[in-house]
Amino acid sequence: MFRQLVLSLLSVMLLPVHRWIEARTEHADLAAIISVVVTAIAVLVPALYMAQKLVAEAVKRAVYCKRQLRGAEWLDAVAAHSRLAISQNGSLSRVLPCCEVRSTSGSICC
């Protein structure tokens, strides 16, 4: 469905360009080839540019996260937060407030 919508929009938007090219060339086949090339350039160049920017931003964020994790500031922030604790192996674990439930076998902390 999405593919059909995109193709329909492209055909409606690029039909005037094709008609303009067709009016200036003598062959309909040549006009079709030129229209396909123009369409490919009009779609691919911005898509490739955006993909390159997206990858560059992802790499930049990954490097930032790696640098932050190597520092000790995040450990201090976690230690200051009352609901998180660092286990002995260095991983984070969520600490739930103890809710004592009285039963016949004693108190249970959940």
Low-confidence stretches: 95-110
Average pLDDT taken over every residue: 77
Radius of gyration: 30 Å
Using DSSP, what is the number of strands? 4
Estimated share of beta-strand residues: 5-15%
Alpha-carbon distance between the termini?
Answer: 49 Å
Adjacency order of strands in the biggest sheet: 1-2
Number of helices: 3
What is the element string, with H for helices and E for strands?
Answer: HHHEEEE
Shape: rod-shaped
Biggest sheet layout: 2 strands, antiparallel
Task: State the secondary-structure class.
Answer: alpha+beta
- Quaternary state of this entry equals single chain
Any idea how many domains? Answer: 1
DSSP helix fraction: 55-70%
What report would you give on this structure?
The strands form two sheets. The protein has a two-stranded antiparallel ribbon with strand order 1-2. The chain has a two-stranded antiparallel ribbon with strand order 3-4. Helix 1 crosses helix 2. The protein has one domain. The model is unreliable at 95-110 (pLDDT under 50). The protein is built from three helices and four strands, in the order H-H-H-E-E-E-E. 67% of the residues lie in helices and 13% in strands. It has 110 residues and is an alpha+beta fold.
